[in-house]
Structures are given as structure tokens and as C-alpha cells.
């Protein structure tokens, strides 16, 4: 299963770029992971037309999962043979109703409001953590 992590807008902070690259590198140990910087939501929706992809939107109205539940979500998609999961982080204004309707799943990182660039890093870290849980790696337990 391939992962694509998309975000709307340019990255403004070098630290965010560095952390994004670090977690993408870590994810590559477990699965193919590709970053996708997009100028707009319309560009995201166009990407969906080009391939057979399962869209997961980060949205405050989405379902909150524990790290273990996210790992189970990833495992279920691997078991189903999902070819590609596209996790999308919106811009400062979030996503439209049309984008939310197109999503197979909406994921919330919690009730707190996060800057969208930081949400991307948290998502990447949690995806990495999910794969370490599935592989029994001690990262999740802090060892």
C-alpha cells in the first residue's frame, strides 16, 4: 500500500519542512510514502480523478482515533488491498463540503485547534507510529 500525504499551500517554516522530511524518511522503512504540496483544494480534487485512491481528510469534524486505532485502520487497508491512501491536510480554512463528501474517511487529530502545518507533522508522526505498532517496534512504547 502506498501513502500520499497532501497539503494545501506552501510551507512557510523551515522546521516544518525538516520534520516533514524526517517522518517521510522514517515511513519509507514500512511503506512507500510520497509528499504532495498542492496550491488549492481544487488541485486535490483533480488528483483524485487521476488515480484509484482512497481519500482520508484531516477535519475537525472527523473521527478521533488512538494511535492503536490508527494502526488498525492502516492494517485494515493493507488487508483489503487498498492500493493507495491519500491523507490530506487542508489550508487554514479547512475543506469544503464537497471535499468532505468525496472522502472515504475523515480523521480528527483532537479537539484542539492546530496550525495546519503542525497538523501535517503530527499526522506523519502518527502514521509512522502506526506502522511501528503493527511491526512490534519499541518506538511506540518509548523504549
Question: Mind explaining what this structure looks like?
Answer:
With 143 residues, the protein is α/β, with parallel strands linked by helices. It has a single domain (2-141), classed as Alpha/beta knot, CATH 3.40.1280. The chain has a 5-stranded parallel sheet, sandwiched between helices. The protein has helices spanning 14-27, 41-50, 67-80, 97-102, 116-134; strands at 2-8, 32-38, 54-64, 84-89, 105-108. The model has no long low-confidence stretch (mean pLDDT 94). The chain starts with a strand and ends in a 9-residue tail after the last helix. The protein is globular. α1 (14-27) runs parallel beside α5 (116-134) and α3 crosses α5 (116-134). β3, α3 (67-80) and β4 form a beta-alpha-beta unit.
Summarize the structure.
The protein has 143 residues and is an alpha/beta fold. The chain has 5 helices and 5 strands, in the order βαβαβαβαβα.
Comma- or semicolon-separated keywords:
single chain; 143 residues; alpha/beta; Alpha/beta knot; 5-stranded parallel sheet; 5 helices
Low-pLDDT residue intervals, each spanning 5 or more residues: none
Q: Count of DSSP E strands? A: 5
Rg is 14 Å
Strand content: 15-25%
At the first level of CATH, the class is Alpha Beta
- SSE string, helix = H, strand = E? EHEHEHEHEH
Global morphology: globular
Supply the helix-strand structural class.
Answer: alpha/beta
* Count of folded domains: 1
Number of helices: 5
As for the CATH topology, it is: Alpha/beta knot
- Corresponding CATH architecture: 3-Layer(aba) Sandwich
| Terminal-residue CA separation | 27 Å
> What's the story with the biggest beta sheet?
5 strands, parallel
Amino acid at each position: 500500500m502506498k501513502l500520499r500525504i497532501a497539503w494545501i499551500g506552501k510551507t512557510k517554516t523551515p522546521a516544518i519542512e525538516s520534520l516533514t522530511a524526517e517522518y517521510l524518511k522514517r515511513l519509507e522503512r514500512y511503506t512507500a510514502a510520497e509528499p504532495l504540496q498542492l496550491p488549492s483544494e481544487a488541485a486535490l480534487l483533480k488528483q483524485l480523478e487521476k488515480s484509484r485512491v482512497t481519500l482520508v481528510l484531516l477535519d475537525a469534524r472527523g473521527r478521533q482515533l488512538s494511535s492503536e486505532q490508527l494502526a488498525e485502520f492502516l492494517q485494515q487497508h493493507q488487508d483489503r488491498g487498498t492500493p493507495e491512501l491519500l491523507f490530506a491536510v487542508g489550508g487554514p480554512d479547512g475543506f469544503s463540503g464537497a471535499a468532505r463528501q468525496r472522502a472515504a474517511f475523515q480523521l480528527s487529530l483532537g479537539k484542539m485547534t492546530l496550525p495546519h502545518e503542525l497538523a501535517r507533522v503530527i499526522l506523519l508522526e502518527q502514521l509512522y507510529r502506526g506502522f511501528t505498532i503493527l511491526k512490534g517496534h519499541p518506538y511506540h512504547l518509548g523504549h
